[in-house]
Write a structure and sequence with these properties.
Blueprint: E1 2-9, E2 15-20, E3 27-32, E4 43-50, E5 55-61, E6 67-73, E7 80-89, E8 94-103, H1 110-132, H2 136-146, H3 151-156, H4 164-169, H5 172-183, H6 186-203, H7 226-247, H8 252-274, H9 293-311, H10 333-352, H11 381-389, H12 401-405, H13 416-438, H14 443-465, H15 483-506, H16 516-519, H17 522-531, H18 548-571
Parallel strand pairs: 1-7
Antiparallel strand pairs: 1-4, 2-3, 2-5, 5-6, 7-8
Length: 578
């Protein structure tokens, strides 16, 4: 969103206005014509500027290219401002510049507050309804309205309302399903569902708020949290699923075939179903994007699951040896060596690989970033490897760096080099799964280890970034999937999983709803929200395309619909697994 800023200049000379973003080149905005002294009319020019970042405005003379004034300001959304320039001395062309607020910016966060209150109201009604349903007269009255034929039997029964447990016990199939549900860690599905719901909301537009969009380059927004969390919880699920299959007697070869098949299907779905825009014509290899979200998930799953299968045992929870406090780490030392080798490869390629016309170890966005010194070096070695191995036409053509930094080189945030660190992320999630296996029925041990891992990852992130957005050794960067990004996201993931595990599985204060339902049908919800993104009722024509309120209403409606769909599928016990 922009702020409109007219510039009034009573100067008798032509001047030009430029804009500066941090660490960028000045960008030309407009020529300001000289004032008309006979008509006493000042020269004016109107421009629109971005309001996400603080800006520096520079007004300079077109004669002699001399700077007249410079102002730093953070403009507000839909505000109307005037930069009034007055001549103080004609002899040496001294001027004054005053920024005047003609119309104050709007409070763009009111729609978020309103939406929050609406959802809190719905939640309060659901909680009140659930409480009332525990009262026998109220429950019997509701059943009477919903099913009049069964009213007499229910009210006159000495046992009161039918017992759900008894009903389940009458059906062996339902009994088996219920037993499996009790053993399942609901916190994992809740964590996965929370990540997925935020991902769907962000992909649908996030109400057009900048913090629900991916960061242009270094740094974090809400949108940058969800994909690595999804990768993390996939690693956690690998530990639990493989252990279960082996305990039930499946051979490792059979499990490996299942792993390969699932990875193949995920990659195929990403390339054929989710990836292309069929509105632009039939699928064509000439401009087909090869990397993607599902492709990265599929390959990451293949590597981490195969690595775990190679070293896991059916009796993994019975390890005995020295240092029992490290029983979830020491038996798997070859896995850790493999991951350290992978990370060494990432570091060497990132910082030592020669990239034509770019400095060695460059991590910047290219374009006008870094004061325009390296316009064609977007992503450094990561971008170079993708362009070399995949070809520019098979990469993402509109990277987030193009918005602010005006980079023109294609760059894929799901590229080859970053996949190494997504494997590291999934492996850390795998470690969380091993903790739950080794310390089963010991919630204090599980939570303490989640906390320790979260602290360790946070300390590593602080060292790598120097607690700075731009000045660290390795900045946090989602486009690059830098190692500091992985450690930071792992820190958040361990702490978040700790909280959800405590609330859902330990204290049972929260059932995990509504996030539990999409978490148990994650592939269907992800693919569905991509395929039907441009269809009603998930999208419709808006009256004001600049309105946060309209965008937020549309995006929240679409996201809520997918939660409702997943709830219906949950109730019908329909789960799409690959």
């Amino acid at each position: 969103m922009q702020g409109r800023t007219p510039f009034h200049s009573p100067l008798a000379l032509m001047s030009s206005l430029h804009l500066l973003l941090p660490q960028c080149l000045y960008q030309f905005l407009a020529f300001v014509p000289p004032s008309n002294e006979s008509l006493r009319k000042p020269g004016t020019a109107s421009v629109m500027v971005d309001t996400q970042h603080p800006l520096t405005l520079l007004l300079n003379s077109s004669v002699g290219d001399r700077d007249l004034c410079k102002i730093q300001y953070h403009f507000g959304e839909f505000g109307n401002y005037s930069l009034v320039v007055k001549t103080l001395s004609t002899s040496n062309q001294t001027v004054s510049c005053d920024l005047i607020i003609n119309e104050g910016p709007i409070n763009s966060y009111l729609p978020i507050l309103f939406a929050f209150l609406v959802y809190m109201g719905i939640l309060a009604l659901l909680i009140a309804g659930r409480f009332l349903m525990k009262i026998d007269p109220v429950r019997n009255w509701v059943y009477k309205k919903l099913n009049p034929r069964a009213t007499d039997r229910m009210i006159n029964s000495e046992l009161g309302s039918p017992n759900t447990t008894d009903s389940i016990n009458c059906d062996p199939a339902l009994q088996s399903w219920s037993s499996g549900s009790r053993q399942r860690l609901r916190s994992l599905d809740t964590f996965r569902g929370l990540s997925l719901v935020i991902m769907v909301f962000v992909n649908y537009g996030g109400g057009k708020y900048w913090f629900f969009k991916h960061e242009s380059w270094n740094g974090l927004t809400v949108a940058d949290l969800v994909f690595p969390w999804f990768v993390f919880i996939m690693g956690t699920s690998i530990a639990l699923a493989l252990g279960s299959m082996l305990r039930w007697g499946s051979s490792k070869w059979k499990v490996l075939r299942k792993i390969i098949w699932r990875s193949f299907v995920l990659i195929l779905l990403g390339i054929v179903v989710v990836n292309p825009n069929y509105c632009l014509g039939p699928l064509s290899w000439d401009n087909l994007r090869i990397p993607g979200v599902l492709q990265r998930l599929g390959f990451t799953y293949l590597v981490v699951a195969a690595l775990e299968l190679l070293f896991t045992r059916a009796d993994s929870g019975t390890w005995e040896g020295r240092f029992p406090a490290l029983q979830d780490i020491l038996p798997y030392w070859p896995q850790w060596i493999f991951i350290l080798v992978l990370e060494t490869i990432w570091l060497c390629l990132t910082f030592l690989l020669p990239v034509p016309d770019c400095p060695r170890g460059y991590l910047g966005p290219g374009g006008i970033g870094d004061f325009g010194k390296y316009p064609n070096c977007t992503g450094g070695a990561a971008g170079y490897i993708d362009r070399l191995l995949l070809g520019e036409k098979h990469m993402y053509q509109h990277p987030s760096s193009g918005v602010i930094y005006q980079s023109t080189m294609p760059y894929d945030p799901e590229g080859i080099l970053g996949t190494i660190n997504s494997i590291v992320m999934a492996f850390l999630g795998l470690q969380a799964g091993k903790i739950t296996l080794f310390y089963k029925d010991q919630p204090k041990q599980i939570m303490s280890r989640f906390l320790i891992w979260g602290i360790v990852m946070g300390v590593i992130s602080a060292i790598l970034t120097k607690c700075s957005k731009e000045e660290g050794f390795i900045p946090i960067n989602k486009n690059l999937w830098s190692i500091s990004y992985v450690t930071t996201m792992s820190c958040f993931a361990f702490i978040l999983l700790l909280l959800i595990y405590y609330l859902v599985d330990v204290k049972k204060w929260w059932s995990g709803a509504p996030f539990l339902y999409p978490g148990m049908n994650s592939i269907l919800v992800y693919i569905g929200h991509q395929v039907f993104a441009n269809y009603f009722p998930f999208k419709w024509k808006m009256q004001d395309s600049q309105s946060h309120a309209e965008h937020l209403t549309q995006n929240l409606t679409a996201t809520t619909l997918w939660v409702i769909i997943s709830y219906i599928l949950y109730r019908k016990r329909i789960f799409w697994k690959i």
